[in-house]
Each structure stands twice: as structure tokens, then as C-alpha cells.
Amino acid sequence: MHDKKQTVSLVFPVFNEEACIHQLWQRLELFVPTIANYAVEIIMVDDGSTDRSFELLAQLAGQVPYLKVIRFSRNFGHQIAITAGVDRASGDVVVVMDADLQDPPELVLDMLTHYENGADVVYAVRRSRLGETPFKKKSATAFYRILNRLSNISIPHDTGDFRLMSRRVVDALGTLRESERFVRGLVSWVGFKQVPIYFDRDPRVAGDTKYPLRKMVTFALNGLVSFSTSPLRCASWVGFGLSVMAGVYICVVIGLWLTHHTFPGYASLMVAILMLGGIQLMTIGILGEYIGRMFMQTKNRPLYIVQDEVGF
Ligand code: UDP
Ligand code: MG
Description:
Order of helices and strands: EHEHEHEHEHEHHEHHHE
Number of domains: 2
Shape: elongated
Strand order of the largest sheet: 7-5-6-4-1-2-3-8
CATH class of the largest domain: Alpha Beta
Radius of gyration: 25 Å
Oligomer: single chain
Bound molecules: uridine-5'-diphosphate, magnesium ion
């Protein structure tokens, strides 16, 4: 073992969670003393909440020496909030978790055991997910299947951002500054020894999910576009397939013409035009997804703006 006590940093993104903060803190106060061999640092990133989340956290930070709070100037999004917390974490190990107690803090002890046995990343796989709609569960499963099929790195299924990372993983992650972030993919990309740990995900203790369908779709698209160029290639394949079909159809039409069997072409023309128009717009849309992200990236804006810091 190491001579000096190592530090573990717990990072929580917080967006309008005033209903959860009290329970979260009660649970953490009980949990922190059970981490025997490590010093503890807790970093809460307030992602531009419009409720009293920041005030509650700042008040706690005034009383608790190991609690640090960052407040963004506006809502930058879950993935950016995680990034900021990990950027600021000083620990030898960093654990990211939800502020709604869906990720049980007690699991961190098991994660630390894996870390001590040589793992650089310990990611928490959801054996079951309580309190979530069947639609969310089904769509998530389908999404990870597709993502893994299309991308050339393997991103674990049924896994969120609840994970432990060693210092070298955190440092490597810090060098990846892409603006449209899909953190779980970036962590997989970094490599090193990554091991799973299984748990049953609780429902959130209070409040509603901060991931409405619109945000979930953007998030999924970011994952797909950041880690795969296959959708671009799909235009070529569809084009190729259509050309083959058109070639066959031309032969048929010539054959009918030679045998004097002509037929009115209005309906088939409409079908062809509409289908081609649809496919063309769709492929332009796919191009647009990539070009839009290139555009955002070329501006090189900072990922987030910090308004307040407490406890640093
Ligand atoms: N969150 C955030 N910014 C956002 C949306 C969510 O910081 O724009 C936080 C939120 O407070 C929570 C975590 O990210 O701690 C995960 O969000 P949520 O629990 O709503 O997602 P779910 O677990 O339902 O997928
Ligand atoms: Mg949650």
C-alpha cells in the first residue's frame, strides 16, 4: 500500500435538485466516515439551477471543510457539469455520480477495492433500473447495441456515468476537450484496465428526471456522431443499392418496350421522386450533424463558465 493516505473525490452534477439535496447530504454524512483508508473530497457542480440548489449547497459548504461547490453561469448540460467536476477534482481517484441518489454511494467502497486491485476504471453496470419507464429502458438498450455495432471502441451496455477513475485516466480525460461531449464514450476511449461492477439502480429520491426526450435524443446523437463515421458511409451504401435497383428496372422497362407492353409511368415516377428526395434530404441531414459539430468545435469556446466557487 501507499505511505501517504490517498484522496477520493466524489463529483456530483446538480441541476434543480433542491428536493434531493437534503436526503443526499444525510446519506453522504453517514457514508463518508465509512471510507476508512482515504481522505474524501466532495465536489458539487451546480449546472445553472434556477431553484435554491446552489444556496443550499453553498450553505453546507460553509460548514463542511471537504465540500466544494462550483456554480456555472448558466445551464451547460450534464456532461459538461461532470467534466468541470472532474477537472477540479484533486483526488487520486475520482468517482462521478448522480445527485438524486440513483447511484448508491455505498457502492464506492466496492469500487475502491477494485481500484486497489489494479483497475483504472470501475464502471457501474445497471442490473436493474427501478422507477424508470419501459420506454427509457428499451430505447437505452437498443441505443447501446447500435452504438457498439457502429463505433470502433466498445462502450459498455447499461452503464451510465457512475464510475470510478484513477488519476491517470482523469488526466487523460482532461486532454480531450471536444465540445459535444459523451463522457462515457470518452472514458472507454482512454483505455487502461476497465472493470464492471453490478448494481440495482434505485428510483430518484425526489424531483423529476432532468432528461426529457429531447435531451435524450441529443445525447444519443452526440454519442453516435462522436464515436462513429458509419452513418456517413450509409449514404454511399444506399446510393449503391438504389443504382442497382434502377439498373434492373431499366432492363425491365426496355424489355416491356421491346415486347410492346407499355404502361403509364405516372405512379412509378412519383414513387421514385419521393423516395429519392427523402433519401437525399436524410443524407444531407446526416452530413449536417457532422458539419454542425465541426462548426461548434472550430469556435474553440471554453466548455463552461464558472460564476461562483465555494470551499476551494
Ligand atoms: N444534470 C445536470 N445538468 C442537466 C441535467 C441533469 O447537471 O442539464 C444532473 C442532474 O441533477 C443529476 C444528473 O445530472 O444529478 C443526472 O440527471 P437525471 O438524474 O435527471 O438523469 P436520469 O438519471 O433520469 O437519466
Ligand atoms: Mg438520475
